[in-house]
Structure formats: structure tokens, C-alpha cells
Design goal:
The chain has 9 helices and no strands. By secondary structure, it is mainly α.
Length: 232
């Protein structure tokens, strides 16, 4: 299984920089608008969008590589089972997601610190703790989304399932529309009040992480059965 993970890692390593550049280009106008109207923290926006977009981009890239030059069928001729193929993909996806959370936290904190140097002020300053929690929450949401998507991909392939991957991107872009931002503010305020009533957002993250971990493991078991029964 480690050999399969290394093969997938080799694909990620070649494409990560390209995905990062594309993500930064997409994020720039959204971050600028957020800082202008004072409703969103630039650091939080950068961190959350980076985690969401990079995680989905990498997943698309990995599954797309499966269908290139018949690699998916050829891989099954190795002394590895369909179960090992599925588990290696799920394991690497989780590892890269959490690595991206760390990178996004660092980049978001840097942006939060750098904006006052260039613009003279920052609309909604946030500390590294808030940025890190936002990155982690986005990473958990991305894993939940992939837990739903991956059984479908293992069943029909990325070519047929590709369109559904654009849902998170559309949601991220919708946040830049003023009516939608105003609509979600009460939800965010409600979550903030809930966290304050609990005393800390940590218990909420622990509960969410446990539920998503169960969803992710259940998705993996389902994908194992689907992929083992798939007729190439």
C-alpha cells in the first residue's frame, strides 16, 4: 500500500504548484472585496479557500491520472488488491488535506499580517488561532465532501463524476455575492454564540471531527466493495 501511496504522491508533487497558483489567482479578487467591505477577514478567507480548492484540485488530479493511459487497469495487475488501492487513496487524501491545512494556516496568517503594510488597514483582523480553526474546519468539510464523492468515482470514474466536484467552488464564489454574505451572517453569528455558550469551539470541532471520521471510514469500506466488484 505504501508503494501505491508513493505513486500518488509523485503525481501530487508534480501538480501541486500549478494548483496553488490557480487557487491564488481565484482568491485574489475575493480577498480584496472582503477586505474592502469589512465583513470577512482576509486571512480567514485565504486559509479557507486554499484548503477547499487545493484539496478538491488534488483529488481531481489523482483520479484523472487513474484514467490516463490505462493506469487504473494496469495497476490492478500488480500484487495489490482492490482494497489496498482504495485504502491508499483514502489515506493519502486525508494526509494531504491536513498538510494543506497547515500550509493554509501559515499563508492566511502571512496575508493577515501583510495587508496592513500595503493597504494601511485590515478590515477584520484575526489571530492565528482563528485562522487555524477555520482551516481545520474547512479541511473537515472537504473530507466530508470527498467521502460522499469517492464511492461514486470508484464506481463510474472521474470523467462521469467530474461535474459534481465544482459544487464547492461554486459555493466559495457565491460567498463573494453581497446578498448571500448577508444571508449567512446570522448562521455564523449563531455558531459564534454557541461556541461562546460552550466556552470554547474545541468541543464542536471534536464532535465534528469524530462524525466526519466515521463518515470517511464508512465511505472507504463502501468504496472497497464497489471497486472490487467493478468491471473494467
Amino acid at each position: 500500500m505504501r508503494a501505491l501511496m508513493y505513486a500518488d504522491w509523485s503525481i501530487i508533487r508534480r501538480t501541486f504548484l500549478r494548483y496553488l497558483i490557480v487557487t491564488i489567482i481565484v482568491m485574489t479578487p475575493v480577498v480584496a472585496m472582503g477586505n474592502a467591505d469589512g465583513e470577512f477577514s482576509a486571512g480567514v478567507a485565504v486559509a479557507s479557500m486554499l484548503v477547499a480548492m487545493i484539496t478538491i484540485y488534488l483529488a481531481i488530479g489523482l483520479f484523472s491520472a487513474d484514467e490516463a493511459n490505462g493506469w487504473e487497469q494496469f495497476r490492478l495487475t500488480f500484487p495489490t488488491s482492490a482494497r489496498q488501492v482504495v485504502r491508499s487513496r483514502y489515506a493519502l487524501t486525508a494526509l494531504t488535506t491536513f498538510a494543506t491545512v497547515i500550509l493554509a494556516t501559515a499563508l492566511g496568517t502571512t496575508v493577515q499580517w501583510a495587508i496592513p503594510l500595503f493597504l494601511g488597514s485590515v478590515a477584520a483582523p484575526r489571530g492565528i488561532g482563528i485562522i487555524a480553526l477555520t482551516s481545520l474546519g474547512t479541511g473537515l468539510a472537504a473530507l466530508a465532501f470527498l467521502a460522499i464523492e469517492m464511492p461514486v468515482i470508484f464506481r463510474v470514474g472521474i470523467s462521469k463524476a467530474r461535474m459534481t466536484f465544482w459544487v464547492p467552488f461554486a459555493i466559495c464564489m457565491m460567498f463573494s455575492v453581497e446578498p448571500i454574505r448577508k444571508a449567512i451572517m446570522p448562521i455564523l453569528d449563531g455558531l459564534e454564540h454557541l461556541a461562546k455558550s460552550v466556552g470554547s469551539p474545541a468541543p464542536l470541532f471534536v464532535v465534528a471531527a469524530c462524525l466526519i471520521a466515521l463518515l470517511y471510514l464508512g465511505s472507504m469500506r463502501l468504496s472497497e466493495r464497489i471497486y472490487a466488484a467493478r468491471d473494467f
